[in-house]
Amino acid sequence: MSREMIRPVLELEGQHVHQQITFHAAEVERLKQLYNAHSAVARLPSDLLSVIFTMQATTFYNTVVAQWDKSGYDEPSHRPIYLWIAVSQVCRHWRKVALDCPELWTTVVLDERVAPELVRTVITRSCGLPLNVVVNASEEHHCVGGCAFKKVPEECYSAAISILKEILPRTATIVVFIAMPNHNDVWEALTCLHGAAKLEDLYIEAVGWQPYSLRRGTGVIVPMELPSQPLPVLRRLRLREVRLEWSSRLLASSLRHLDLAKCETGYESHLGDMLTALRCMTGLESISIDAVPYPLADAEYELVPMPHLQQLRVPADEAGAQFVSHLLPPSTTCIIFFDDDDDGSDRYYKTDPEIHISDDVLLCMRAAVDHLLKGMVVYAISYEFYEDMERRCNSSSSCRIWAADEHRDNLHLPRPWASVKTGPCRLQFDNTTLHGPLLTRIISATDLRHVHTINYLDADCDGARVSMETLRGAKNVLTLRMSGDATFAMSAVLAGWTRPACMDGETRKQTTRNTAHKRAFPPDWIGLSDVVEDDKLASGIVEDSDAPPVDTEPKVHDMAGSQPLFPHLRTLSFFQVDFKLREGEKGYMFDRDVSTVFRWCYSSLYGLDVKGFVECLRRRATQGASPIECLEFDACQCREREELIPLVRAVDEVRWDGRRLRLDDGNTVVTGRSVIGP
Q1: Where does the F-box domain lie (predicted)?
Q2: CA–CA gap between residue 106 and residue 92 (Å, rounded)
Q3: Integer-rounded Cα radius of gyration of the chain
Q4: How far apart are CA 320 and CA 326, in angstroms?
Q5: Is the torsion defined by CA of 576, 581, 584, 586 positive or negative?
Q6: pLDDT attached to residue 305
Q7: Which has fewest Cβ within 10 Å: 104, 255, 295, 590?
């Protein structure tokens, strides 16, 4: 056949194949829609989907705003805020729900990388609801997609500023990130904030190279004329890395929450300026300030009443203490003192009891604590220290003190820890350890006679003795709750026992003067279960005179001689504690790398030593302490039930996850379950 005859045949066959492809594609789409219509996802009610979409959009918004300065410019920072738009592409039903839910479209990002058409589309779909506006004044050299002409971002930025002025009357929240040196357009637009009748939350942060701490004198400075008139309904003001004068109009009387992070308040500002500003904001419910100005020399200031204050967060330094001493908050206000150190180095520097703290700082802190506890009594204390073995700067500590009016009727009635922790504490010290020099001096000078509950969670065994000695004044403690690795040292601490030198006689003979070090011997709390009831061992006499005469004993913080700690203790609770396992066995629950955590403990096995704890109870009885009436183990692990027999015999009541243990035929622990522990 000739080519002219073959061509029509091929074209006809091609048309037939194309028709078949079109038909089958349409059929696949029809069957897909039919399948989706009967799926569980498509049958979800529209109102339920709207709630789910709104919650996800809010989560994305909060996450992006919190991490905006860390996002960089590889991807536009606003993109994660609109990740929820993907739900509109699942099916027609979901798309209709998303388009018909105006709450989803209330977040507006004004950025040089966002086209004005998209912004106006979002505003239109919000249907007049109050808006959450994010203004990003980014670096001038960044452009849309990384390849557009410079005029494109300039046009987008100019349009964004114009849109900001237009939507101010509808705006409820404004978040401003400033990363460009020339940001006068932003201040000009915000000068009209008095027209934002619905504005309740304002957040301004300098990012990139513009934080005031990096560019002293040339960073982001909030203009004094911002806004041009007072804001009527502004409830929350948050500023970060900017400069603000205490006479600024942003410090409105309507404020309920004030947060100033790493802000400069003027070179010549003093405590009097700050107190004057606060007198006009007596409705504040929370204050967080990490840089407090010092008072003028020999100046006297009147106390400022803050009748609605619920939480105050200030640095644990001289200026912060003096500021707190000039406030009159309610007795229910929680005062948080924190160690302002981002890298964590100063936090560990302050854990050494030998470190000297200025007498001025100590006097101011003690005066502040006395002022805050005036007319109140302390009834509960909690200390929690979490240690990151990989990055110490990620470790954290918190000491909380609960206090109540001294005339309260039920003040002396003991309360369980679950009830205590639900109420607001009076004082809180963050990133400062209980065995550090600051808290040891402050708490030691505090009246602890009415404390009946102590919660102690610590990953540092070496600091357990000093921490407990700091709390020795709490002689009427009835409940002690413990968790963390420091629990393993508590048997020796509560018994008032310190490892005697004679237990390391052989090691001492082999240790020369040049190699002697405090880590050459086990810590002072190890070995209570190995003590032999011998006069020489108990007294710590070393008969071998060949031992090197060096001071290798650990220093012990002694405050009250041989008197037992917490002599009236009734209930001892353990939370998430591992019991000892046989050497080489696996199964520890609460430590990921036992071998490295206790690499310095020599032959001591990781875990709670039952034998040592029973010896602790015996020694406390001989010292005149009241017998412990109840032992509680919550979420602990004990693979061998026989380990619990000595405890059940030594204490009247032992409870495991709320169930009381008893002995069956004197050899078996019974709880109604076949397994003890998780």
Answers
A1: 42-110
A2: 22
A3: 33
A4: 10
A5: negative
A6: 95
A7: 590
> Would you say 64 and 81 are in contact if contact means Cβ atoms under 8 Å apart?
yes
Q: Tokens standing for 652?
A: 């009247």
pLDDT band at 9 (very low <50, low <70, confident <90, very high): confident
pLDDT in tens, 528-571: 877 744 444 444 444 444 444 444 333 444 444 468 899 999 99
CA proximity to 383, closest of 348, 353, 347, 427:
427
Angstrom distance (rounded) from CA 645 to CA 523: 28
Neighbours of 287 (CB within 10 A): 23
What is the distance between the alpha carbons of residues 624 and 647, in angstroms, rounded to a whole number? Answer: 20
Residue type, 61: Y
For residue 211, which amino acid is it? Answer: P
Half-sphere exposure of 503 (CA within 13 A, CB side): 23
Instruction: Give the C-alpha distances (Å, rounded to integers) separating 216 from 210, 211, 263, 360, 493.
Output: 10, 9, 11, 28, 51
**What digits encode the pLDDT tens for the residues 171-230?**
999 999 888 777 888 888 888 887 888 899 999 998 876 666 655 656 788 888 788 777
Interval 134-153 mean pLDDT:
58
Can you read off the two tokens belonging to residue 79? 């993109």
Share the mean pLDDT of the chain: 79
Task: Tell me how many degrees the CA angle 528-583-595 measures, rounded to the nearest 5.
Answer: 90
Tokens of 575: 């939370």
Dump the DSSP string for 555-608.
Answer: P---SSTTPPSSTT--EEEEES-BBP--TT----SS-S-HHHHTTTSTTPPSSB
**483 dihedral zone (left: phi>0; alpha: psi -120 to 50; beta):** beta
Strand partners, 107: 132
Judge whether residue 574 has pLDDT over 90: yes
Can you spell out the DSSP letters for 176-218? Answer: EEE-SS--HHHHHHHGGGGG-TT--EEEEEE-TT--TTTSTTT
Residues of 376-398 as b/e, b for ≥16 C-beta within 10 angstroms?
bbbbbbbbbbeeeeeeeeebebb
**How far apart are the C-alpha atoms of 274 and 312, rounded to whole Å?**
14
Phi, then psi, of 294 in degrees rounded to 5: -80, 155
Task: Quote the CA–CA distance of 584 and 594 in Å, as a whole number.
Answer: 11
What b/e readout covers 91-113, taking b as 16+ CB neighbours within 10 angstroms?
A: bebbeebbeebeebbbbbbbbbb
CB atoms under 10 Å from CB of 59, counted, come to 12
Q: How confident is the model at residue 587 (pLDDT cuts 50, 70, 90)?
A: low
Distance CA 418, CA 192 (A): 50
Tell me how crowded residue 541 is: count the other CB atoms within 10 A of its CB. 12
What is the rounded CA–CA span in Å between residue 326 and residue 308?
Answer: 16
Q: What does the block give as tokens for 166?
A: 């237009």
Distance from C-alpha of 455 to C-alpha of 245, rounded to nearest angstrom: 42
Terminal CA-to-CA distance of the chain, rounded, Å? 85
For 56-169, where are the E strands, in sequence order?
107-111, 131-137
Supply the DSSP symbol for 425.
P
Give percent above pLDDT 90 in the chain.
31
Answer for the pair 197, 169: CB distance below 8 angstroms, yes or no: yes
Q: How far is CA 291 from the centre of its chain?
A: 20
The position carrying tokens 């990921």 is 592
State how far the Cα of 493 lies from the Cα of 464, in Å rounded to an integer. 7
**Maximum alpha-carbon separation in the chain:** 121
DSSP category for residue 379: E
